[in-house]
Amino acid sequence: MSIIYRNARPEDCPKIAELIDLASGGIIEFLYHDLFPGLRPVEVLSRGLEMGRYPYNYTTTIVAEVNGEVAGISQSYPSRYHLITEKIRESFPSDRVAHLEDFFEARVDNSWFLESLGVFPAWQGKGIGSRLLEMTMEKATEEGYPSICLLVFADNQDAIRLYRRKGFEEDRKVRVHRNKLIPHTGGCILMKSQLKPK
């Protein structure tokens, strides 16, 4: 099996959107459902990734490609961009934004933020997620950040074990109320890892 890791390209956006949706644990579906009649949330997200401004576009994504197909992704950027922007407030119903306010305000200042890490089920268990995480940490170091942070659902023990193996520790718990579209208990955990300067 030949795995290629590369920067994302515009044509990858549909698959990137699918993986971000998968990694979001229901948050993408919760935010986007029924907003654009005739379009699924991943289709709306894909268009945004292709046409959006940094960092909310494909340029912040590393792709793992297997046999010419996107198998996994890592999307990341400076943590100062992980917040509720005016565009978010204008684009989504206020009750949905309020539901996720704690989530979108959770970050470690002056840190690199891992927004999404996802691997399609057919390619899980082959080290792709682990390598994407390592590459994201390397990128954060190259960008000069002293730490990297991420949010993970508290009931996602497989992901938490991976992050702990890579040196992440719990920073604090983040409230995310359970919803039929966000079927997780215990909210999220903000995790961080100190990075060794180059």
Shape: globular
How does CATH name the architecture? Answer: 3-Layer(aba) Sandwich
State the end-to-end CA separation: 31 Å
Count of spatially separate domains: 1
Which fold name fills CATH's third level, the topology? Aminopeptidase
Order of helical and strand elements:
EHHHEEHHHEHEHEE
Count the helices. How many?
8
Estimate the helix proportion, in percent: 25-40%
Describe the main β-sheet briefly.
7 strands, mixed
Looking at CATH, the homologous superfamily is: Gcn5-related N-acetyltransferase (GNAT)
Q: What layout of secondary structure does this protein have?
A:
Elements: E1 3-7, H1 13-23, H2 27-32, H3 41-51, E2 61-66, E3 69-78, H4 86-91, H5 94-99, H6 101-105, E4 112-119, H7 128-142, E5 147-153, H8 157-165, E6 169-174, E7 188-194
Parallel strand pairs: 4-5
Antiparallel strand pairs: 1-2, 2-3, 3-4, 5-7, 6-7
Helix pairs in contact: 1-3
